[in-house]
């Protein structure tokens, strides 16, 4: 289930760094392609705010890994 105001995105990224972890939310800077409501943003570095991101990917495997995954309640920040 998505939370109030939550949207589900499908993204494929090359992970570059784990920047911030506050209050259960983690911010990740990534390089790659994101599909937001079906609109692709190619080759751009974006920041993702994701709750409990560690449950989706293993932090030890974040660097130089390209993998698809689903995000809930995501914000795409420039």
Automatic annotation (TrEMBL):
N-terminal signal peptide: 1-23
Keywords: Signal
InterPro entries per the UniProt record, alphabetical: Transthyretin-like_sf
UniProt protein name: Uncharacterized protein
Species this protein is from: Mesorhabditis spiculigera
């Amino acid at each position: 289930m998505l939370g109030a105001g939550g949207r589900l995105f499908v993204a494929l990224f090359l992970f570059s760094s784990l920047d911030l972890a506050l209050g259960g939310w983690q911010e990740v800077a990534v390089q790659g392609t994101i599909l937001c409501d079906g609109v692709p943003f190619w080759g751009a570095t974006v920041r993702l705010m994701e709750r409990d991101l560690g449950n989706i990917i293993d932090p030890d495997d974040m660097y130089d890994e390209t993998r698809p995954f689903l995000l809930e309640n995501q914000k795409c920040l420039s």
